User: Fold this.
Amino acid sequence: MHQLTIAEIIRGLRSKEFSSTELTHHLLGRIQQLDSNYNSFITVTEESALAQAAAADQRLANGEAPALCGVPIAHKDIICTNGVRTSCASKMLDNFIPPYDATVVDNLNAAGTVSLGKTNMDEFAMGSSNESSFYGPVKNPWNTRCVPGGSSGGSAAAVAAQLIPGATATDTGGSIRQPAALTNTTGLKPTYGRISRYGIVAYASSLDQAGPIARNAEDAAYLLSAMASHDPKDSTSLKQQPTDFTAELNNPITGLRIGVPREYFGEGLNPETASRVQEALRAFEKLGAQLVDISLPHTELAIPAYYVIAPAEASANLSRFDGVRYGYRCEEPKDLRDLYMRSRGEGFGEEVQRRILVGTYALSAGYYDAYYNKAQQARRLIKQDFVEAFEKVDVIMGPTTPSPAFELGAKSADPVAMYLEDIYTIATNLAGLPGMSAPCGLVDNMPVGLQITGNYLEEARMLNIAHQYQQVTDWHKASAV
Assistant:
């Protein structure tokens, strides 16, 4: 049963081939047996999962089941869950148990999903390898000596290891698409504001966006249909009507204009990764699409702009975790200053402290104009690149990552090299556009991802494009286990 996709699970539950309780028992057993190899879960909620599964079986029997009734999933541990620890993979929030659900959890509960627990991640979603978690690194099921990508590496690894068929994740600079690429899963970062951020612990508020990780585009469409909604509790939530993102999956893509940015195929891209992406582009040509050479001339500004804007917002968002208002408090402080300094010094990990320092410096008097304002100007230029590109093409495609997964610890001592792992994904967040990664091949038996970037609110078209590609290729079916 662990090999079933979400679409197959929906059909199986309704035709009574198996019950949600049987499926949940099976997957909980796999997590207990196998997850010590991957460390993809921080918290497993066995008791509540079985209760939710039993309730789902009752609804299915009564014929009143919503779309995803009885489908097991897991939530990234940055998303608040009522009564279940939400740690953000940090010592700072190790004992935080929210008294409410995030809107995205509410939505998925209403759709009938069964939550098996909370997945591991980079601390406060800061990282590209999932090595900065307080609970230890996540390991890539394709090769446990390698990283799964970050920061949603736990969600991606759990799906790749067939412990769950789908999971929630968040993407601030590529944290859904990059781990999806490195684990041969399909991950989608929606348009900024498509999914409510209410109840998701903030990292960089103008960039954060939740989305699904699943085995294929069809399953991602099912999850996105349930996750997306307008939410008056989030002032940045877009006023969009509920959408069935599975409705257009089978539309033909003949005549589709695919923009191929020349900046995405230059120095730094692994040649074998480039070959797999080029092969995917040729597959789209056979489906009737047209490849168009385009330029995104300010691509090189994305990394420096992001690593000013995101830390600046993080330094403000994380200021509340001081041992007084929220979070870990140090033992026996000498005075108030000592309490603040040691609580934050002991509660936050190295990467979080580094970004808080960078962000505070960029926002400080005398440096605000030189760094933060400049970064925002660069962001505007990057966004304008996409606006002009989408006047010529329907979607943009290229590699998701510069290379396949690297070994654990290989880049830990070089933060800049680590930051470059997101070089192809960050611009999408700065512009607020939707992006996704779909499996497109293997290099040395490690997965490679194809990145698809769409225009604003065109998630349905992106999922249609990825689904059509997955009807003529089998890369998404390749398994790590």
Observations:
- The mean pLDDT is 96.
- DSSP finds 15 helices and eleven strands in the chain.
